[in-house]
Amino acid sequence: MIAKGLMRDGILTARGNKKWTADAVQKILKNEKHCGNTVTSKTITVDYLSHKRIRNDGREQQYFIKNHHPAIISEEEWEAVQQELKRRNKMLRDPDGKYAQNYSNRSYFSNKLYCGECGHPVVRRRICSQKNGEKYHFTAWQCRTRIHPKIYVADCKARYIQESSLEEAFMKVLYDLKEEKDQVTSEVNEIIAEYDLSDMEKARLIIVEEQLDTINNRIHELTENRNSTIADVYEANIRHLYYEQEALQAELEDLYEKQEESKHLKKQLEELLKLLDELENARTFRADIFQQTANSGILSKDREVVFEFKCGISRKVEAQSK
After folding, report:
1. 305 Cβ partners below 8 Å, 6+ apart?
2. Angle separating helix axes 75-91 and 22-30, nearest 10 degrees
3. How far apart are CA 204 and CA 217, in angstroms?
4. pLDDT by residue (tens digit) across 50-85?
């Protein structure tokens, strides 16, 4: 979507190309340089005669340098993007993370439905049936192992669910949520409380940030005075500082991730409550609300569906067959 938008606006790539790819956008979003940091030795020279360089896959030590240069976005913004990328990556797998699937935007249900029996993604299909001697077609969703048994080996007994039944089931859940908004708020707040940093964690966050700043300043000083320092002394000091930095950075990222998840849940709760307030009595399926609020749907063989929402709650409903 971002790549298409860039091409539509006529924005060129760094190399002056008109075509943007998803990989190019991903590299930009994951580049730590935008928030002022850098990682050294991402590539290494393996042949000094041909000057051949390859990606450093662990052959040599990499070092993270904080505040290496002026940032163009805040670290909070960059961290929020990384968390969003992780969430979107999870969308392309079943809840247990076992079965991957390709991204699709053919339907509002695409990449969001999974089989409650075997865990595989549920996919869209057209089915031909007959009623009163007349043939008719309808759209349904079914576990992909039932549709492609030669490709996916699984003894799954899940039946299909008509798309219209899924739509009606989701709308029923929405209207039920509208009637119990106070309970929804209470449920989500309990979930948020699990991610909120404790007073001890908040204090630790401040300490870790201060310690990292001190180490980063020390690394910068050592690097600036490298030529006037004995090589062995420099290597020993810089290696020790990088070791401390790596440990603190990992701890900081864990705290940030927990903090960001709490913010994300609060934002999703606000969005859900707002949409519920605006929800009219008409039972027409609201694809926009589904896309904005639903994280996934788990379909069982008895045609029950568990809709899991981005704010952390879930609701079970029966998808009536027609």
Report:
1. 161, 166, 169, 170, 297, 298, 299, 316, 317, 318, 319
2. 140
3. 20
4. 667 777 676 666 667 777 788 888 877 888 788 778
Contact 83, 91 (CB under 8 A): no
213 CB contacts (<8 Å, ≥6 apart)? 66, 67
The tens digit of pLDDT for each residue in 163-199 reads 999 999 999 999 999 999 999 999 999 999 998 999 9
19 found inside a domain: no
- The tokens for 66 are 């904080």
Rg (CA), the chain: 26
Residue 15 falls within a domain, yes or no? no
pTM, two decimals, is 0.68
Domain that holds residue 199: 102-318
CA distance 297 to 94: 10
pLDDT tens digits for range 26-44: 888 888 888 888 776 677 6
Largest CA distance in the chain: 92
Give how many domains the chain has, as a whole number: 1
In this structure, is residue 45 part of a structural domain?
no
Domain assignment present for 67? no
CB of 101 within 8 A of CB of 124?
A: no
Buried b (16+ CB within 10 A) or exposed e, 239-250: eebbebbeebbe
- CA 112, 115, 118, 123 torsion-angle sign: negative
The whole-angstrom separation of Cα 77 and Cα 57 is: 28
Sign of the CA dihedral running 261, 264, 270, 275: negative
Is residue 105 pLDDT above 70, yes or no? no
Angstrom distance (rounded) from CA 195 to CA 222: 38
* Number of C-beta neighbours around residue 14 at 10 A: 8
Distance between CA atoms of residues 305 and 279, nearest Å: 21
